[in-house]
Amino acid sequence: MSLASASISTLRRQLAAGEITAVDIIDELATAITSRDPQIGAYLSLDLAAARSAAATANLDLPLGGIPIALKDNINAIGQPCTCGSRFLERGYTAPYDATVTSRLRAAGAIPFGRVNLDEFAMGSATENSALQITRNPHDPTRIPGGSSGGSAAAVAADLAIAALGSDTGGSIRQPASHCGIVGLKPSYGRVSRYGLVAFASSLDQIGPLTKSVTDAALILQAIAGHDPHDSTSLDVPVPDYSAELEKGVAGMKLGIPREYFGEGIDPAVRSLVEQAIKRLQAAGAELVDISLPHTEHAVATYYIIAPAEASSNLSRFDGIRYGKRADTPTDLLDLYRRSREEGFGPEVKRRIILGTYVLSSGYYDAYYSRAQKVRTLIRRDFENAFQEVDAILTPVAPTPARKIGEHSADPLHEYLSDIFTLAANLAGNCAISVPCGTVPSESGTNLPVGLQILAPHLAEAKLLRVARAAEL
């Protein structure tokens, strides 16, 4: 096994035994990136000199000592670009500080390594909305890797990264993890600080790991979780020892199967693989319980009111004045605003800004935004009621495997519906994870990964990881 394809756990053992050095890992990754990334398009930037310097002085006694971890390019790392996949920040912006997750990775001994692609400002489910480049699925380069953390997922799946951080606003960690055949964890809202994450929708965003194994996901979550005074939504609650819970198994646990997630619209092959994974957990001693999440059918509509509304507010800071793109020779201040935003933002970002501004406008706030928040409360109560009966919930991650690049580029509604199984966890604030559960053959002869989604109560990541470890193939 090459160092680039190894898990964090394996590399840590080799480093501790003196069999390899942290610089060896960086060098193998650099070789792999040079060889394969021109076909995949995962990385937007890479500072090998800084990575090698950090590796040469890495403290191997720390939990992630010497392990390089790629960062989605909407997470700040001091001295590095942070483009958000947008022309607006493509040139002239260098992060002046570390995001809290970046500083915590460094404190755990990890090496922030490279900036990976995403849908522009994390708005999308395919990484086709990046203004800078297309990222391709390592299992089939004619297909999407998912999004918006598509660069993170593709890099890990292609063995161009040991692990990566992504952000999840409506499924943007779990869906690309499913499409690329890796593990992707969305922590509970408030478990991981959002300080230094370029905001899309502030009440929905969470940062989490994309990894080669559930064990690795637990290691990274351990490093980045915890209260942060820089983030007012960060919760001041104890962080459990996630690794200690992993091998306890699912015997005696009750796992919910929501009927609303297994209806029409699911590819039969996807449904079959998810059901096989559920049966394996049952064979391992779990009790399956039929449950209902009755307001699931409203999740897409609710999300696409709340998220664009928050995005329209958050992205108002990109005005051509303070940083980022600035239109040349404006005629007046209004022309500067208008042209800077017209030239800087891509079509999907403009679409969501317009939608969000509309639902927040006078005369429409009560009809749309206020009503959506009420439905959000009902969705959260559905989960609260369900978790009184079961320990965790099992569903598909996405209705289909990864689609072909460009297949739905002219149909944003179809693309929005592809997140139907992941949005509700963000609306409710619960933790959720995607774990590979098999592959399905495509018409072109490639094998396309499928993920099992596991959802657990708010702040129950230890329980979530325990089920995920039992489900891991």
Overview of this protein structure:
With 473 residues, the chain is α/β, with parallel strands linked by helices. It has a domain at 3-169 and 190-245: Alpha-Beta Complex (Amidase signature (AS) enzymes), CATH 3.90.1300.10. Helices cover 38% and strands 14% of the residues. The chain has 16 helices and eleven strands. α9 (268-283) links the parallel β7 and β8 (287-291). α2 (22-40) packs antiparallel against α3 (48-56) and α5 packs parallel to α6. The radius of gyration is 21 Å and the shape is globular.
In the CATH scheme, the class of the domain at 3-169 and 190-245 would be Alpha Beta
Strand content: 5-15%
User: What would you say the CATH architecture of the domain at 3-169 and 190-245 is?
Assistant: Alpha-Beta Complex
Helix amount:
25-40%
Task: List the helices and strands in order.
Answer: HHEHEHEHEHEEHHEHEHHHHEHHEEH
The secondary-structure class comes to alpha/beta
E-strand count: 11
Classify the fold: give the CATH topology of the domain at 3-169 and 190-245: Amidase signature (AS) enzymes
Radius of gyration over all CA atoms, rounded: 21 Å
Kindly report the name of the CATH homologous superfamily of the domain at 3-169 and 190-245: Amidase signature (AS) domain
Shape: globular
The span between the termini is: 18 Å
The overall pLDDT, averaged over residues, is 96
Q: Could you give a short account of the major beta sheet? A: 11 strands, mixed
- Strand order in the sheet with the most strands: 1-3-2-4-6-5-10-11-9-7-8
Number of continuous helical runs: 16
Q: Low-confidence segments, ≥5 residues, pLDDT <50?
A: none
